[in-house]
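Final report, section 2: Outcomes. Of the targets proposed, non-specific serine/threonine protein kinase is the one most frequently requested by collaborating groups, and we therefore present its record in full.
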Amino acid sequence: MFEPGTVIAGYRVERLLGSGGMGAVFLARHPELPRYDALKVLKDSAGLTDNNFRRRFLREAEVAATLDHPNIVTVFNRGRATVPSASRSGQSDLLWIAMQYVPGTDCARELNAIGRFTPPRVAHIVSQVARGIDHANRRGLTHRDVKPGNILLAEVDEDSTVDEQRVLLTDFGVAKISDETEALTSVGTVLATLSYASPEQLMGRTLDGRSDQYSLAASTFHLLTGRVPFDDRDTGAVIGAHLKEPVPRASELVPGLPPAVDAVISRAMAKTPEERFANCREFAEALTVSVRPAQPPSVSDAEAVTVRGLSPRPVSRNHPVPMPATRRPGPPPAPGRPAYRGPSPAPPGGEATRRAAPRPNPNRQRQERPTPSRPATGADPAVWQHPPSGPHRQTNDHLRAAGSGPMDRPRAVRRSRARRCPPAVRAGRIRTACPWCWPGSRRCC
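The predicted structure is given below as tokens.
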């Protein structure tokens, strides 16, 4: 349309970025600032001779210029210009919009290159576009032409991945005007627009943000499967499918796609706006959840916990898990009696006898070794407990009073100790040297 170097309203055209049914987009150098903008120029057949159309175009561009959102391409300026032409007068009028230039590509071109997007990437793209649509809808502006060709994908820098790619929605301010004047000269352009149009839009009813939601869901289907929901070369058949036919199942076209995605897209593409999500954000959130892989089941408070030795039954974190019953401790010992600690395994053979009678050390001072006392009633008689030592130790009289004393010791232990006593002690000449006698005892061992 315009060769590089052509000046339009002060913008110097550098190269063509793309073209569509309404016009062409050029990369143009700003007349005053050191930057490049995307300059969209409307075609002569887009109703430029209609003064009402021109007024609506300028008004919509002004509204679009008020949108300030990271997921919407910013509109910098708009106007009317006169450029040289091959017409009889040598000049022609045109309408133009200067927008933010986003280096990268759009979803339509990316689809042609890769066939279809991965589900996580689609969820990322839809989430960002949904934010932009809801932002515009809250300000009373409906896009009316949400499709992959109007979804821009910014270039990914070295520190980012495609899952962090910035996504922007473009053509705000042009979409509504193009919808009102869509006599559309190209059959391909008609089908491209109708593939994502909502039923109420096709019937000429009042539109709101839920119409853009329908178009976004149709674009989502295309990004996931690589084909539009209702693919037919006949315009009437496409319109009839949007009005009456159910949405195809994307999971039947994409192996491994969770069936939950079908329910989300089907709701967003419901025939009546009341059956859809309240806004595009809710649709994007439901889509993000549906494309996630199934997670393994986790143990919750209400789930059953099985303990070895117990029958499984539901328990809660707020209630302790019952444990196997253990042996109850016996009654507390009487005052002055040693506590019974329970049975201990006896060493093999005669190890108990040898350990019970250590050799006396003549170099040590006089030691008083306690004599094993009889355990409490009901305890194992094979287990013996030494009485306490020190200033509160039991004497022989106390042991006799308690029913225990040297006369009650096992014979094997007495013989072993008697053999180890010095002869002088056994003869009674040295009484205090015997380490086995209790104070007050009348005989040795």
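The domain at 1-101 is CATH 3.30.200.20 (Phosphorylase Kinase; domain 1).
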